[in-house]
Amino acid sequence: MYPQLLIGLLVLGGARGLRQTRALLEDDLYQEDSNLEVSQVPTSRKIPKGGQNSDAETDCPIEFDRKCTCTWENSRLYPNLHETRNLVVNCSNAGITNASFLEFLPTKTAKLIFTGNNVPVLEPNLFGKRDYPYLAYIDLSNNHIKEIKGKAFHHVSTVTVLRLNDNEISNESIHDHIRVFSNFFNLRALFLNDAFNDEIWSLSDLGGIFEESNLTRLEKLHLESNEIGIIRDPKLFCDLISLRELYLRNNHLPDLNIDVDCLPNLSYIDLANNYIRKIPPHYALFGLLNRVNSKGEDLRLDLSKNPFHCDCELQPFIDWVRNTTYHSPDRIHHREKLLCESGLPESNTGLLIEKLLHEVFSPYCKLQFMGSSTLPLTSRKSKQKLPTFDMQAPI
Ligand SMILES: *[C@@H]1O[C@H](CO)[C@@H](O)[C@H](O)[C@H]1NC(C)=O
Ligand SMILES: *[C@@H]1O[C@H](CO)[C@@H](O)[C@H](O)[C@H]1NC(C)=O
Ligand SMILES: *[C@@H]1O[C@H](CO)[C@@H](O)[C@H](O)[C@H]1NC(C)=O
Ligand SMILES: *[C@@H]1O[C@H](CO)[C@@H](O)[C@H](O)[C@H]1NC(C)=O
Ligand SMILES: *[C@@H]1O[C@H](CO)[C@@H](O)[C@H](O)[C@H]1NC(C)=O
Ligand SMILES: *[C@@H]1O[C@H](CO)[C@@H](O)[C@H](O)[C@H]1NC(C)=O
């Protein structure tokens, strides 16, 4: 319960926001399902039935044909903080191939778990045409979703968490239904981990959906594991003006060229396990390292598990890493996991970046690179053949 408590408070914002943001970044919480429950209340109270014409066995509407369960949970769910009982509709792993019965979703539903089914297309008005004043949380992960029709989501203005992880949403779907998230005015966390089919290698393909979608309250955006290798438009996230945490772990990014001036509250970027080999001073990423947001918070980055090539060129970054050791909170999340995957001298391979010494490089460095933005060719020539990476990102 404790992690949910923290996450809930984060969303409540205010003076406590800062501390909660940091707690959120701990590994165990990062894994945690952020369902924004803030507290539990005693279970002794009699729990009402699902309403409408309920099936006696599942408490769900009879139209659900026993595919789901409908249970009242004693909890508080953001933003319905005055409610202590929330209706949870759970349709997990039920072999569902046609989701049209969701038009009979009980109007009091607060949390919908619809995962592990096989629904390639989300049709218009997925939840029918009624209002859902308590709907706060929707999980549609792992359903082989390829296309989300433009008007699939209506009456979702109260939803704060939407999960679409592990689907196969196509490039065409994104282009044809650019306003797909336009009714989620209150969304705080959007999970799109491995949500797209393999053709979406450029984050720019997603640009329109943020621009057209009124996600002005979104604080957490998860885009992990999408094979993203390139960002063409640095202003891609600028419409997400409340963004605090951006998760781009497990992609193919060699650098991160995004405009953060338009994101005053951004405080954390997860870039772990991408294709970052070097961070010379002219890289956008180098600029990001010293960013402070409008609240005076340092931007924190997770750069662990990237294939750093530890040679002269990495020296400015290495200096930066070592210079910031005593900064609190640490601007580098998982500092202890910043390792050299290769290096010159080769003996740097496998070493911890912050432990590398200037002297190690000196025989290999023809010039002092501190502050310089280009590498002399002589130094390039002297290097052995560099390992190659499949960037998968055609120009
Ligand atoms: C939903 O139901 C599935 C299968 O019955 C169960 O494993 C899962 O824990 C349930 N999830 C929630 C959030 O209740
Ligand atoms: C899904 O079920 C509804 C109602 O039974 C039906 O009208 C619709 O054609 C079905 N859709 C598909 C793709 O089979
Ligand atoms: C995605 O779709 C757009 C527009 O239809 C197209 O220009 C682009 O090339 C597509 N990208 C890929 C990788 O197919
Ligand atoms: C949603 O965004 C569109 C275009 O960005 C804008 O025209 C519209 O006024 C916005 N609606 C709300 C309710 O913010
Ligand atoms: C940034 O955070 C502060 C404090 O949490 C909040 O008051 C403010 O509205 C946020 N700004 C934006 C643009 O979301
Ligand atoms: C690291 O600190 C040293 C000494 O304060 C300074 O000269 C150097 O510019 C700093 N380097 C970076 C990359 O911040």
From TrEMBL:
<keyword id="KW-0433">Leucine-rich repeat</keyword>
<dbReference type="InterPro" id="IPR003591">
    <property type="entry name" value="Leu-rich_rpt_typical-subtyp"/>
</dbReference>
<dbReference type="InterPro" id="IPR025875">
    <property type="entry name" value="Leu-rich_rpt_4"/>
</dbReference>
<keyword id="KW-0732">Signal</keyword>
<feature type="signal peptide">
    <location>
        <begin position="1"/>
        <end position="17"/>
    </location>
</feature>
<protein>
    <submittedName>
        <fullName>Uncharacterized protein</fullName>
    </submittedName>
</protein>
<dbReference type="Pfam" id="PF12799">
    <property type="entry name" value="LRR_4"/>
</dbReference>
<dbReference type="GO" id="GO:0016020">
    <property type="term" value="C:membrane"/>
</dbReference>
<dbReference type="InterPro" id="IPR052286">
    <property type="entry name" value="Wnt_signaling_inhibitor"/>
</dbReference>
<keyword id="KW-0677">Repeat</keyword>
<dbReference type="InterPro" id="IPR001611">
    <property type="entry name" value="Leu-rich_rpt"/>
</dbReference>
